[in-house]
Amino acid sequence: MKARQASGSFFEEFWAARFRLRGCAAASSGRQEPKKLLIPLGDSRVTSIAHLSRNFLRRFFLKKRPLACLAFLPSLALAAPQSAAAVAAAVRQAAFAVAPPNATISLGPVTGAAYMQACTMQLAVSISGVAPYEQAAAHCSSPAWTLYVTVTVAARLPVVVAAHALLPGQPLGPADLRLALTPVALFAGRAVYTDPAPLIGTIPLIGVAPGGIIAQSDIEQPVVVQAGQTVEVTVVSGAVSVSVTAVADETGRVGDTILLTNQASGRRFTAFVTAAGPQVTLP
């Protein structure tokens, strides 16, 4: 089993005291002093500081020990593990201080706190890395130790979602849509809406579950002009606008540019299709 010499204030104190106890007992019995102890860091049986202290002291008192050796015990009895909840609270507070608005924070395991002696000072936490994956370093000055915790920052933005189940082919109205704070990771790389207004009158191409995000690829604009239809085309020049009758040569949806023919002159021209009909804007 891989092992290394103990480091950190509590482990140094614990194993040094254990070494002194064993050395004291060995000296009193005439046995050779034990060699320097190593800590098997991967030993699954060592689950907490209390476990280390309890088991060692239990084994120690099962045998007769000189009273002088008991002088080494007070520091072990008083040692207490660091609260994992306190470490998590300090890390969350530091992470929220640098996170974007409406972000959610999730932490990795903080079980390592059980192997640290309780900090007598306020924990100092520093955050490094780039969202969404960051790292927090919780520093204790007395006794001196540092615990590293992974931090995941999930930013949230208000986007348009389905207020109820939406059926494909049914035009959308105001009652079909609502805004909801949504983790960016759920729509990253997709074109979504932050305002319901542009979606009014559009037609879903697929069914959308309640609360589902509505992306631009999920809807199509309604048909405003049918090919062969006679329509009024608005021609705008600055503050002046006039109407011209024309025949649509193509079917057009909102946002399309279609070709039309002026019935009076026979000339063909293009117009931009809006919700109100074709429009030509002159420079």
- Kindly state the mean pLDDT as a whole number? 79
Biggest sheet record: 5 strands, mixed, barrel
Query: What's the total helix number?
Result: 4
Any idea what the radius of gyration is? 36 Å
Distance between the termini: 81 Å
What structural class should be given to the helix and strand makeup?
alpha+beta
Q: How would you sum up this structure, described in words?
A:
The structure is a single chain. The chain folds into four domains: 9-78, no CATH class; 84-154, no CATH class; 156-220, Type Iii Antifreeze Protein Isoform Hplc 12, CATH 3.90.1210.10; 223-281, Roll (SH3 type barrels), CATH 2.30.30. It is built from four helices and 15 strands. It has helices spanning 9-29, 49-61, 74-78, 84-98; strands spanning 104-107, 124-130, 133-141, 144-154, 156-162, 177-183, 203-204, 219-220, 223-225, 230-237, 240-248, 252-253, 257-262, 268-274, 277-281. It has a five-stranded mixed β-barrel. A hairpin with a 2-residue loop joins strand 3 (133-141) and strand 4. The N and C termini lie far apart (81 Å).
